[in-house]
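[retry 2/3] YesK-like protein: previous attempt timed out, resubmitting with same input.
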Amino acid sequence: MGLIAAFIGIVAIGIVILFRAKRWREYLDVSFIYFGVFALTGLWIGFGDRFGLGSIILLLIGITGLIITALVKKMA
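[retry 2/3] YesK-like protein: success.
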């Protein structure tokens, strides 16, 4: 239940970030922080849940998002 609440909260924060960003570069900066929080949340839930499937999925989404954002930021 806590995993579902954390996931919904993170997705809601991401939607707010999308509507608040004025420029593409600003979105990339905030997106980097957003995916970092995603990865940290996966770790946090994982340590409390002995790394179940949900926490591993959150961690993988966060790390993948960080890598993609870093690559896009490097190309921009």
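[retry 2/3] YesK-like protein: The chain has one domain: 2-75.
[retry 2/3] clearing retry counter.
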